[in-house]
């Protein structure tokens, strides 16, 4: 497998990038310091030579010769005749300062100026003891013209060269150590910078369908990581919304399919309870056939809603007689009600422009909820009002248990579906307690009465 830097951990890549940047910066700084120090030492040596040369050239020829012969210390000098003969020399100079061909080559042209040469210089400690021990020193020379020839001054570069050597040694040791420290710091800083991502990753690993409402922690700094966390949380919101819609669809499908299947089973059980004549069996089959048609329409409706976003309920407008629909629903549930009575109270036809199958479902859910969660006789009242129609289903129970975390008697999936259908018809649903009885009141808008 090919080893690629793209496969390295992000923390390592960030640390290496920091290390590379530091290497370039330290190398540039080291070169700058080396050049600046070299120039500074060179300038200092030249200033020293220039000062001494100015002093000597200002003297008379004879005084200059005597001054050169008495010269000691760091600066050495010689007076050279035009023919190359040394007229006077500092005590510690063991050979002509211009004896090097390379020096003459460097000073070719005007024969004056600065140059470098290796010269023989007597050891001052040995000279004090009467010994002439000479050693070669790399020196900087300055040649000035005089009345009697040329004045050559020289100063040793050994101290400057040693200082530069020490600087290079320190840079060679200090830069790697600085890089090591920078690499460790870069790794630690990269880890600290990536720690919020690791916290988000750890928290994201704990999010599942059981705690889909959890969100990633937001970093305190208003930076790219915070914007990333906000984007991921927005994505989790969308996924959570989709999960809730899926759960709602499954719950609604279970609730909606349960009622017709229960009625079908009741019809079949009654038909099989005792021998039936052909007319009774035909009536039972017709009832089952009607329930199968309702079941198929219900499945188609659920599939259509599952394909959409679940945000709205499509309504088909027809003229619906609510009183007749209520009687049909009551007749459908009477076999399942057993000894409990289901009574429909309607002064006459109550016609409404709406969706007949959906209104049938709403009334069926109300009666089904009364059978499941209520007690005693069930009364279905359908009447008109000045601005609409009202359907009230009353039983003697204590109310509905909460099915979706809402307070008892106020919601439940069946009532949620009824509310959705009522809203689609411009109405509303409310649950009331009157004289110890539970009343579910569904108000629908714009009825047409006859």
Automatic annotation (TrEMBL):
UniProt feature coiled coil, ranges: none
A single cellular component GO annotation: plasma membrane
Major location category of this protein: membrane
Organism per entry: Nocardioides euryhalodurans
GO molecular function terms attached to this record: phosphorelay sensor kinase activity
Transmembrane segments: 12-35, 171-194
Protein's name according to its UniProt entry: histidine kinase
Histidine kinase domain segment(s): 252-448
Keyword Phosphoprotein: yes
Family matches, as Gene3D superfamilies: 1.10.287.130, 6.10.340.10, Histidine kinase-like ATPase, C-terminal domain
Domain of life assignment: Bacteria
């Amino acid at each position: 497998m090919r080893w690629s830097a793209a496969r390295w951990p992000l923390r390592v890549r960030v640390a290496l990038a920091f290390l590379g940047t530091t290497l370039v910066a330290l190398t540039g700084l080291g070169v700058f310091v080396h050049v600046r120090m070299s120039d500074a030492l060179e300038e200092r040596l030249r200033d020293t030579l220039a000062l001494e040369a100015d002093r000597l050239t200002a003297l008379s020829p004879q005084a200059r010769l005597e001054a050169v012969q008495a010269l000691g210390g760091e600066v050495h000098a010689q007076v050279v005749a035009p023919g190359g003969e040394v007229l006077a020399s500092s005590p510690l100079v063991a050979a002509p300062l211009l004896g090097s061909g390379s020096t003459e080559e460097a000073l070719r042209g005007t024969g004056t100026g600065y140059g470098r040469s290796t010269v023989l210089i007597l050891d001052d400690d040995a000279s004090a003891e009467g010994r002439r021990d000479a050693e070669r020193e790399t020196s900087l020379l300055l040649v000035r013209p005089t009345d009697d020839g040329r004045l050559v001054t020289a100063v040793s570069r050994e101290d400057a060269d040693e200082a530069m050597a020490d600087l290079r040694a320190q840079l060679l040791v200090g830069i790697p150590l600085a890089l090591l420290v920078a690499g460790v710091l870069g790794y630690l800083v990269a880890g600290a910078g990536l720690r919020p991502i690791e916290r988000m990753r750890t928290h994201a690993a704990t999010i599942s369908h059981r705690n889909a409402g959890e969100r990633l922690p937001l970093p305190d700094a208003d930076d790219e990581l915070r914007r990333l966390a906000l984007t991921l949380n927005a994505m989790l919101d969308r996924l959570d919304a989709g999960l809730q819609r899926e759960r709602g669809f499954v719950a609604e499908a279970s609730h909606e399919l349960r009622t017709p299947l229960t009625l079908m089973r009741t019809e079949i059980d009654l038909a099989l309870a005792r021998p039936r004549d052909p007319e009774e069996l035909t009536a039972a089959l017709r009832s089952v056939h009607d329930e199968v048609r309702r079941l198929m329409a219900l499945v188609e409706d659920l599939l259509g809603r599952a394909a959409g976003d679940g945000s709205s309920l499509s309504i088909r407008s027809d003229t619906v007689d609510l009183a007749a629909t209520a009687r049909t629903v009551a007749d459908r549930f009477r076999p399942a009600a057993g000894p409990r009575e289901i009574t429909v109270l309607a002064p006459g036809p109550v016609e409404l422009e709406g969706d007949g199958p959906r209104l049938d479902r709403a009334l069926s859910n109300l009666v089904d909820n009364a059978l499941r969660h209520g007690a005693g006789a069930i009364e279905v009242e359908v009447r008109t009002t000045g601005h609409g129609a009202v359907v009230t289903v009353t039983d003697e129970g204590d109310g509905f248990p909460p099915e979706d975390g809402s307070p008892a008697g106020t919601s439940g999936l069946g009532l949620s579906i009824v509310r959705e259908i009522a809203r689609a018809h411009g109405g509303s649903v409310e649950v009331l307690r009157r004289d110890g009885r539970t009343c579910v009141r569904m108000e629908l808008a714009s009825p047409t009465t006859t």
